[in-house]
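The instructor's notes for this session suggest beginning with a concrete chain rather than abstract definitions. Hand out the sequence below and ask the class to guess, before any prediction is shown, which regions might be ordered.
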Amino acid sequence: MATSEKELRTCSNGHKYYKSSDCPTCPTCEQENKPDSGFLSLLSAPARRALVQNGVTSLQKLSAFSEKEILKLHGIGPASLPILRSSLEEEGLTFRN
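After discussion, reveal the predicted structure:
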């Protein structure tokens, strides 16, 4: 498999970073935006972005979705479900059936 050439980019905040994919996400901004606590802090960056972009910023909002619906979001994989289930259970909530 051929290795992609990394390209130097600058985000809108002025951070410089190298990327070989067409993903526009700045790793420095991503790290700065990572929450310190809460269920979103436990997830990978793609999973966190998927939820936030779909308005899921609280466990109450998450509980309005089924597991199947959450898995359809780009960025959410099966590894995220145990974290989400556990976070919901701690608050006495569950995914919608």
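Then share the key points. DSSP finds five helices and two strands in the chain. The first helix runs from residue 27 to 33.
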